Amino acid sequence: MSVNLSFTHDNETRPVSRDLLVKRAAWLLRRLDQADKDVSIVLMGDRDMASYNSRYRQRQGPTNVLSFPAGPPPGPPAIALTEHEIGDILISVDTAAREAQNNNTTLHDRITELMIHGLLHLLGYDHERSEEEAWVMWDKEQELFRELKCYRSSTMAQLAINIDHVATVRQARGGAEPDPVLAGGICELAGAQGIVVHLREDRRHIQDRDVRILRQTVKTKLNLEMAAVKEIILIALDLKPDMITLVPEKRRELTTEGGLDVIANENKVRKTIDKMSRAAIPVSLFIDPDMEQIKAARDVGATFVELHTGRYCDAGTEQERDREFDLIAESAETAKGAGLRVNAGHGLDYRNTARIAALDAIEELSIGHAVISRAVQVGLDQAVREMLALVRPPFPAH
Ligand code: PXP
């Protein structure tokens, strides 16, 4: 199956997300039993659409959508079309934007409705043949749109908040405030689906007492980040967090630098996973988006990998960022294909998160510094809600 989506409109003035629309079109093809088929979708401005409308339908002015089913070209059958192509759908983004405004919906949803309409035409539905057929097509459009909405919300990534830096502020004065335990509760009330803490060997922020109390208070999921060292392994086995994430740990680093080298530490990692498995604690390995590390993670029996997004977040140029993004996207698919569950995190903030969250294979994002920093300015509840709106956008708002 391929969805070939191109733009000829000015995407600066009317920005649309190719990733999102391709994903929705691919879902529609699967849902319509056309998983082995190809479709081309061209998004254009009103001027181009008016010209197609006049040339092929002899009508003046633009329309919202036109579909051209694949078929033998007129004249001698010199070019055999592949049996996989079902046709082309042309959509005017300008008209879709006006209709979205009138219908009180969003541009992406209106374009999605037009893609559904166009696809159904390509598959033989026709609202112009009779009133009865018009109703059949309308019902099908509504059904597909509703299902697509449900599908999207059930596969959206979850947001887990890393609250280490609440403890960092507390440790700055060595007192009791602010309390990461209370912060964890506020994050959950704001909608976070998990709480993450890193109990470092040097106890620079999170303390044993924090993890112990959080184990009792966290209602969603407590993910304990830790190094594969004896002392912390014993604490994890005693407290039984909902999962652990193994990270490399260096005394002098400001934050976790680079992913775990599973290949170089295979024995240690495998033994830790075995111990956790016996206590029914799933293990995630924090690794760079690297195919060899993914293979090693699968071979040592990890349940999850958490893909390190640091290089994507720190990229100095757009090209570098795109390259790092592609690497994460490919790694996420590969890991999922290998039977691993996939999380991601590190360095994610309010500008760079939405793109990663939109990757289908990613189940959960672990975000700390950006949210806690913003919380200082706007409050923790609001900071979490703003991040949630990026990770799990309410369907119509995308
Ligand atoms: N994931 C892992 C494994 C981490 O070590 C950290 C940092 O503690 C994070 C995610 C969160 O990174 P950030 O604080 O940059 O959002």
From TrEMBL:
* Entry EC no(s): 2.6.99.2
* Gene3D superfamilies in the record: Aldolase class I (3.20.20.70), Metalloproteases ('zincins'), catalytic domain (3.40.390.30)
Share an example GO biological-process annotation for this protein.
rRNA processing
Q: Which GO terms describe its cellular component?
A: cytosol
Output the PROSITE patterns linked to this UniProt entry: UPF0054
Question: Which co-factor is required?
Answer: Zn(2+)
What keywords is this UniProt entry annotated with? Cytoplasm, Endonuclease, Hydrolase, Metal-binding, Nuclease, Pyridoxine biosynthesis, Transferase, Zinc
Which terms in the Gene Ontology molecular function aspect does this entry carry? Answer: endonuclease activity; metal ion binding; metalloendopeptidase activity; pyridoxine 5'-phosphate synthase activity
Question: Which EC class does it fall in?
Answer: transferase
Q: Which Pfam families match?
A: PdxJ (PF03740), YbeY (PF02130)
| InterPro entries, A to Z | Aldolase_TIM, MetalPrtase_cat_dom_sf_prd, PyrdxlP_synth_PdxJ, Pyridoxine-5'_phos_synth, YbeY, YbeY_CS
Similarity comment text for this entry: Belongs to the endoribonuclease YbeY family.
- Give the matching PANTHER family: PYRIDOXINE 5'-PHOSPHATE SYNTHASE (PTHR30456)
What name does this protein carry? Pyridoxine 5'-phosphate synthase
Q: Which organism is it from?
A: hydrothermal vent metagenome
